[in-house]
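so my prof wants the structure for this chain in the tokens format not the other one, which i didnt know existed until like an hour ago. anyway here's the sequence
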Amino acid sequence: MIDQSTFDFLSDLTRNNRREWYHANKDRFKDAQQNYIDFVAMILFRISEFDAEMIGIEPKDCLFRIYRDIRFSKDKTPYKTWFGASMNPGGRKRMGAGYYVHVAPGGNSFFAGGVWHPDKETLAAIRDYIVGWPKQFEMIVKDPGFTDTFGSLGGNRLKVAPTGYPKDHPQIQWLRYKDFIVSKQISEKDLQSDQCLDIAHEIYGHMAEFIGFLRKAIFS
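here's what i got, hopefully its the right format
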């Protein structure tokens, strides 16, 4: 579970996003990061109960660094004010479908999964697989457990049909997506509760078939 001290650190960092403050509070950062790492380890264990591909994945291979890349950004604040982990087979650097956990203060935490900002080849593979297996895809994304948990797919979409597909294609509503992701917001109260891992298990469980479909699309 996420400790209150972790949220306190992230809130303070939001208000004091400067290198001098960060280095003066480096011990607080290390404690908060370790709390998050332990949390990710427990989530990985629960996910592996229904997704065998996640067995043996190390939390350290999933974590995003706290340092922001400010080279091309107008925002020059040096640190991220959240903790994030991309839990894919092979870790966060492998392109593929996986799970994500985002912890941030102010009610901005969420559990998510899928494929975010895929490269051109990966996106083409997903679209082609949806065209090849449309009923299977729609059974997954229209399942009551899926829609009750996530609503609909998130991420960016094209306003027009993607190149190579007619605008009246039977699956055009799915083919316009540029990301294939779902997410569910989770409160700080739930993240600190004894039921947190059960909540995570249920939410991630509802996206497991969706992620499995995307993996087949990418690697088949």
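also thought this was worth mentioning. The chain has nine helices and four strands.
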